Amino acid sequence: MKKNFTNDLVLLKELKRSNDQALIYIMNNYHKPLCFYAYSLSNDHDGAKDIVQNVLITIWERRKILPEITHFKNYLYKSVYNEFLNKTRGSGRMMIFEKEYFEGLNNFVNNQDENETKKLLKILNNEIENLPPKCKETFLLCKKDGLTYIEVADYLNVSIKTVEAHMNKAFHELRMKMKDKINTIILFMFGIEKNI
């Protein structure tokens, strides 16, 4: 009889019984979103995959002694977050503002319905498309491509003040449309802002 792994209690029970189909279910349903989440924390594709792989291996290795998990999705995201923090602390790269960002992002992901997140991302993408052309180009170079303001200024052959003006305009317009979720959702999509 095929197990209903969508029930978190069944999923946990089958993991503890070493049912590899339970692990396959987790990998099929959570691997990609967990990698996306890990990438939003680390801004490193290979590092994100390593983080998720470590989490899944640990869950399988410790399957017999897993705690009582009532919400598997939250448990997985929290595990990825903790694994990321452990790696970051070990490298000495964690800064105070980054810690606040990561905690805010973690709260956002854990408290957000998946459909609601997709809806917000769609709205944000539409609003970015509606920005004035130069403003949009500057915003995407900074946020999507990860360039600093200096690099963008050099690439577009404009002053840093012009880049700052475009970014301020972009954030102002996006805030008007997205209200209080704009900072978190932009960070979720594009990672930490790198200014100068």
General form: elongated
According to CATH, what is the topology of the largest domain? Rna Polymerase Sigma Factor, Chain: A
- Helical stretch count? 10
Characterize the biggest β-sheet.
none
Q: Compute the CA-based radius of gyration.
A: 20 Å
Low-pLDDT stretches: 191-196
User: Which CATH class of the largest domain applies here?
Assistant: Mainly Alpha
Strand pairing plus helix content: what structural class? mainly alpha
β-sheet strand percentage? under 5%
Helix content: over 70%
Number of domains: 2
Give an overview in words:
The longest helix has 23 residues, at 20-42. This protein has helices at 8-16, 20-42, 45-61, 72-91, 96-110, 114-129, 133-143, 149-156, 160-178, 182-190. The model is unreliable at 191-196 (pLDDT under 50). The protein is elongated and about 60 Å long. It contains 10 helices and no strands. The protein has 196 residues and is mainly α. Helices cover 75% and strands 0% of the residues. It has 2 domains: 8-110, Orthogonal Bundle (Rna Polymerase Sigma Factor, Chain: A), CATH 1.10.1740; 114-190, Orthogonal Bundle (Arc Repressor Mutant, subunit A).
